[in-house]
Structures are given as C-alpha cells and as structure tokens.
User: Which sequence fits this backbone?
C-alpha cells in the first residue's frame, strides 16, 4: 500500500498546555498547525481533578475542563487537532529540510516544514492497584501542584532523591505532618537536601519502608506501610500520598536524532526551544525537568511557536535571496 502523504507548515506532536499554547500562537501566525494529541489527549492535567495555580482561574478549574478549553481556543484560530500518535519520525538535518512523521504505525505520513515537540513526561508510579484507583483522589505525583489541598493535614511522600526531599520540605510548610517513605536504609538525595529534611520537626523518615496498600474507597484515608527488612506492616492515617520517584520524558521516538540528556529530556539551545536540528523545537515537560508546571509548559509552548515562525521567515528570506 502506498503512503498517504500530507504536507503542513507546522506539525505539533502532543497536546497539554505546551502543545495547545504552541498551537494558539502558531495558528495566529498563520502557520496552519496540525496537532496530534498523542496517547493521552490533554496530557497529565487530564488526571488532575483541580487546577488551582494556573493564572486566570480565581476559583480553580478541573484539569480535563481546562484542556478542553485550551483545545477549543487553539481550534478557534485554525489549528487542526487530530486524535492519534506520531509513532516514527525522520527529521531532516538540513535548514529548510522536510521532516517526515508516521502516524499510528500506518501508511499515513505527515511532511512538515517545522516540528514542535510537546510530548511531555510521564510520572512514575508504584504500580499498585489501590494507588491507581485513587489517582486524583488523594494520590498525586506533584506536591507543588496539589499540596495546597492538604493544608494542615497529614500526608505521606514516597521517594529518596532530591525531588522527593524538595517536595517533602514544601509539604512540611503547609501540612501538619509528612511521613517520608524511603525504600533503602539511606537517602540518595544530596547531603544538603538530606540535612534540610532531617531538620524539619514535622517530617518523619521511615527507612526500609515501602507502600503495601493505599487505603480508602473514593479518596485516600490511610496508608499501609511495610518494612522490607522485617515484613512488619503498619497503618497510618493520611489524606494525601505523593509519589516522587521520578518522571520519564516521552521522547523515545527522537532518540539518535535529537540531543537529550541521560534520562531522555530533550536539550534545547540557551533560552530558546531550538533543538540541535533546524526547524525542530521542543517545549513543555519533554525538555523541562526542573519546573514541570502547567504555566511554565504553556510559556515554552508560546516560545516554540515564535521560534518556528522566525525560523520559517529566515528560510523564506534565504530562498528569495537565492
């Protein structure tokens, strides 16, 4: 079967705040963007029940509603949004080159003058059925995003690295008590971060301890811990469980073509969204392992669209001169 080829100015891979913001700006710049949503339309915020820290929503908004509104705004300016995944891609190394993306492992191929990558990152979870059941009902992978809802309450956090220590410190400022579960007999966070956590009176660190089960029906109301050395189990009352064991950027299809760090985050040039290949730009959590917030993702989506617009203008000028 022959390929079905479609040519576009701008292909946006992935939705969420970064992808939809890039689409809004690209559409307003007449780049006629085509956006493929990826396997999780709307990104990580579709699993968040309440978004309380995005500017412009004084009463807060639930994540899925916010993503629908962002999509509608992008479509209002002419973005074409399609449900589907880019499953393979061939990126040009030449300025003005055409990038080729395969859709859903089919014979559908999109040829694009520019590509904006907004594939995001996926939080790592423990994989327990009780944990998955209560995601959005007290189980979260972002203390900065959701910690406010547990002000004055008892919570727990799982993790042993710098991110876990930072989030434990953040939670300690607003929660009554924070129980930190560390799988080994030591933390792998930096000495400075360990000292900070150890100095907090309302943080209790449980070493050699793992989650056996998250307790609760519709929302979290407790946690069953297990000591992995003795097998002893203990239940504690909590209302929130924060998982801080890392994120995995959704960038595998770009491996061996784009520069990325050892964990797979795309590397961009300076304060831009430019990757190492001309006409290819990265925004949102696919290239940001420091902040991982909806508002910062949206900001880089704007930057990516502006970078793409300027790139195309440069290419067109070069062709006119030639």
Assistant:
């Amino acid at each position: 079967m022959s390929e079905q080829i479609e040519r576009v100015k701008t292909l946006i891979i992935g939705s969420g705040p970064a992808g939809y913001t890039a689409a809004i700006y690209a559409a307003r710049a007449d780049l006629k963007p085509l956006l493929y949503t990826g396997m999780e339309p709307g990104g990580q915020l579709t699993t968040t029940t309440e978004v309380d820290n995005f500017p412009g929503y004084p009463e807060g908004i639930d994540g899925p509603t916010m993503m629908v509104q962002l999509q509608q705004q992008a479509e209002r300016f002419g973005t074409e949004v399609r449900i589907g995944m880019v499953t393979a891609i061939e990126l040009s190394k030449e300025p003005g080159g055409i990038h080729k993306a395969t859709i859903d492992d089919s014979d559908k191929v999109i040829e694009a003058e520019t590509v904006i990558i907004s594939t995001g990152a996926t939080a790592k979870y423990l994989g327990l059925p009780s944990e998955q059941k209560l995601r959005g009902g007290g189980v979260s992978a972002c203390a900065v995003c959701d910690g406010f809802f547990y002000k004055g309450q008892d919570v727990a956090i799982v993790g042993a690295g710098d991110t876990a220590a930072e989030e434990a410190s953040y939670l300690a400022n607003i929660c009554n008590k924070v129980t930190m579960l560390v799988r080994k007999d030591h933390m792998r966070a930096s000495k400075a971060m360990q000292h900070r956590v150890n100095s907090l009176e309302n943080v209790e660190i449980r070493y050699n301890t793992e989650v056996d089960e998250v307790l609760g029906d519709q929302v979290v109301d407790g946690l069953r811990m297990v000591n992995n050395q003795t097998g002893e189990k203990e239940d504690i009352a909590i209302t929130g469980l924060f998982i801080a064991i890392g994120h995995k950027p959704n960038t595998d299809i770009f491996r061996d073509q784009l520069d990325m760090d050892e964990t797979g985050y795309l590397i961009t040039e300076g304060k831009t969204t430019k990757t190492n290949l001309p006409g290819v730009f990265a925004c949102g959590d696919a290239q940001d392992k420091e902040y991982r917030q909806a508002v910062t993702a949206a900001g880089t989506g704007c930057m990516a669209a502006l970078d793409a617009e300027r790139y195309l203008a440069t290419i067109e000028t070069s062709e006119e001169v030639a």
Observations:
- The radius of gyration is 22 Å.
- Residues 195 and 298 are 34 Å apart (CA to CA).
- DSSP finds seven helices and 17 strands in the chain.
